[in-house]
Amino acid sequence: MVQIHPVQTLPVDSGVREVKSSPYVTTEQESFTIWMRSLVCHSKGCTVYDSKGNLIYRVDNYDSKSCGEVYLMDLYREVLFEFQQSFGLFKSCEGCNSNGTRFRLRKNFKISPRGSSSSYKAVMESSKDDQQSCYKILNHRSVFIIEDGSGRLMAEVKKKQSNVNGLDFGEDVLTMVVEPQVDHSFIMGIVIAYGLLKCKL
């Protein structure tokens, strides 16, 4: 099997606790590897590793039709976001967490000046202060980027490239680069919602 992330042995009393206690927002750009496979056999989902090879997020989708509730979890299976799809004239996916933060992702039907690219719009609302923020996914071929309402780049997701000539990780191994001062758990939530709408999870 092709190794998609570095192998690193972590002491139970140090490294693992650091992962659990580490914030989701840092001052540096961060890179993650998304493997569009579940750790659970015969189920859909994905597994996310950081640049050191530590397991950070996981998604296990036991619904073969991918229409039930789906959960984004951390290393300890603590639910960070819960997702529910809506089917109708305009298909959408809603994500929410225990802090009252929720967002809805749907396809943007406005004509884009960027040729063959397509876009999705995520509207986030917090029940604490009722403030809304908009985010946008711009998809062009195998690369998509996430921007905030002002057009600031937040993250980029694309097929993972190997440093070894001729080695191909396949279509289900992706690289996600998150910009500084951006909550990567929220970015991961948008990526999961996008994957559900694209029937990739």
Protein architecture, described:
There is one protein chain. By secondary structure, the chain is mainly β. The chain has helices at 15-21, 184-197; strands at residues 30-35, 44-50, 55-61, 70-74, 79-86, 92-96, 101-107, 118-126, 132-140, 143-148, 153-159, 173-178. A twelve-stranded antiparallel barrel has the order 1-2-3-4-5-6-7-8-9-10-11-12. Residues 1-22 have low confidence and may be disordered.
List the helices and strands and how they pair.
Elements: H1 15-21, E1 30-35, E2 44-50, E3 55-61, E4 70-74, E5 79-86, E6 92-96, E7 101-107, E8 118-126, E9 132-140, E10 143-148, E11 153-159, E12 173-178, H2 184-197
Antiparallel strand pairs: 1-2, 1-12, 2-3, 3-4, 4-5, 5-6, 6-7, 7-8, 8-9, 9-10, 10-11, 11-12
Task: Summarize the entry for a quick read.
This protein has 2 helices and 12 strands; from the N terminus they run αββββββββββββα.
Biggest sheet details: 12 strands, antiparallel, barrel
- The strands making up the biggest β-sheet line up spatially as 1-2-3-4-5-6-7-8-9-10-11-12
Count of alpha/pi helices:
2
The Rg value, from CA coordinates, equals 17 Å
Span between termini: 22 Å
Give the overall form: globular
- How many individual β-strands? 12
> What is the percent of helical residues?
10-25%
Order of helices and strands: HEEEEEEEEEEEEH
Strand residue content: 35-45%
Rounded mean pLDDT score: 78
Poorly predicted tracts of residues: 1-22
